[in-house]
Known about the structure:
The structure holds 2 protein chains of 2 kinds. Helix content of chain A is 68%, strand content 2%. By secondary structure, chain A is mostly helical. Chain A has one domain. In chain A, α1 packs parallel to α11, α10 runs parallel beside α12 and α11 packs across α12. The N terminus of chain A is likely disordered. Chain B is an alpha/beta fold. Helices cover 36% and strands 25% of the residues of chain B. Chain B has 9 helices and 10 strands. In chain B, strands 6-7-8-3-9-10 form a 6-stranded mixed β-sheet, sandwiched between helices. In chain B, α6 links the parallel β7 and β8. The longest helix of chain B has 18 residues. Chains A and B meet through α7 and α8 of A and α2, α3, α5 and α6 of B. Chain A: It comes from Geodermatophilus africanus.
Amino acid sequence: MTRPTTAHGAPAEDGGAVTAADPATDTPVAATGGRAWWRGAVGRTALVLLLAVLAVALAYWRSGSGVVVSQAVVTGILIGGVYGLVAMGLTLIFGVLDIVNFAHGAFLAVALYVTVEMTGRFGVHPYLALLVAVPVMFLLGAAVQRGILSFSIGQPLENQLLITLGLALLIDNLLLLVFGPNPRSVALPGDSGVEILGAVATVSRLLAFGVALVLAALLYLLLQRTRLGTAIRAVAANDTGAQLVGIDTRRIYMLTFAIGTACAGAAGVLVSPLVTIEPTTGELFNIIAFVVVVLGGMGNVVGALVGGLLIGLTEQLGALYLPGQSPLLAVFVVFVLVLFLRPQGLFGSKA
Amino acid sequence: MTLLEVESVSKSFRGLRAVDDVSFTVEEGSILGIIGPNGAGKTTLFNLVAGALPPDTGSVRLAGTDVTGAKPHRISHAGMARTFQLMKPFGSLSVLENVAVARMAAGASRRRAPAEAADVVDRVGLTRWRDARSEGLPTAGLKRLELARALASRPRVLLLDEVLAGLVPAERTPVMELLETLRRDDGITLVFVEHIMAAVMRLSDSVLVLDQGRVLTSGEPHQVTQDPRVIEAYLGEEPTVAGP
């Protein structure tokens, strides 16, 4: 027993004293594990960027028109920011509550109709609806978590999955009942085109992208720099441990679900001038958000934003490769490839 | 003053009485060692006291307040902390963040928590590992982190579940010294489950022996270990007498 320890008895470097008593902690990663992960992430980012450049070059070669490609890239990145915001909410909920929330898109649809009503009835500027929709969605999320989902904690995953699926159907049909099946739209006053890199982007798209990025940054700061955020990350990492150090995990679950739902709400307001609004419009965003969450790594908030940009780009470039097909076709090709090659996602690690 | 009063708690799992009518009290500032063969119900008893499991019957009082079956976070706020035999760090967070989370949960502000957490990290001897991701720590480091996180809530009672298990003898001595200073300088009351008899003999003011969920006997350390019933209960067990 001549294992080296320092004068203060600090643990020796090799971790060789791991006994059979604790197999769960017998990780081969030493303290350098974080750095190695970081190096891997940088490598993967470079690879993804390379693929993106290749995809753009291929699109240019296929279409032979710089303007068309440039338009696709600009449109893709702008809408990708919004996809990222939707997916950040979804991935946060998954990371902390371990719930696959099928109702996320339906919540987004609720925010769409809040915007429709506020602009239609009161003539409010669509983006001012953020001030109402975000708090409303936050409260709705909190109520749904505390009133419905909290009873399924600790039950099999399928139960929670079916509950959120049922909730999605319920919300979709309530919207249909209240607002009818006719498509609605929201007009953004003074929406005009702005030229970027030879492409034309509307002010509404630019604003949606900008506000989505600001909200994403705020969410990131909330998670990294506040007491609540630290508690949320602690619960995501280990809820039993979090309870033991005195964190009220029930409260964290509720607030996290509320924050995630508010993200969907904010995204709903931001895209309202860009889409045709029907009770089922949220489903499209739901599908895309799931792909983005898997791409970015389940529970990884930054990964969700990057994944959102990539999927926005894929959707638009895919439409160039496969004209006349659904833009979702290329998205699902990427999705299947990621599931095959890197099922933990590009930046697979928890929030 | 009696700080912790456990009164005839019982817990059954599918008909198996894991803990059967166990009572004990702990005076403020004292150290109680709980020993017993494998499967005697030591960890279950800890779970009942710390709120991880509600007891079927019986009560737990902390400083006169009934905390029976209270949620773990409430018990933590009431002044009781515990460590786990299998460590449960917040793997993706750094060592300092792990402890800062516990400080904040105990009421420290976002601004003060890191400095206060750093003091605790220094105290348990993890200074060099402060910024490492906690999941990369070796066993000895995880044990210390578990202790640091429990201390961060500034408990009056600390429940330690096999805090020395998995450590080589050279690593045990500093941990035992740390536990002694916690009692001496901070006045923290300690209740610990331990297999290593040398540590039980050195640290405990009194010892409680569990066997098959019941209290076999209790008393002063040297008196208890010479009790024939205790020796009999341990027969067939690997005698764990290796010490530092």
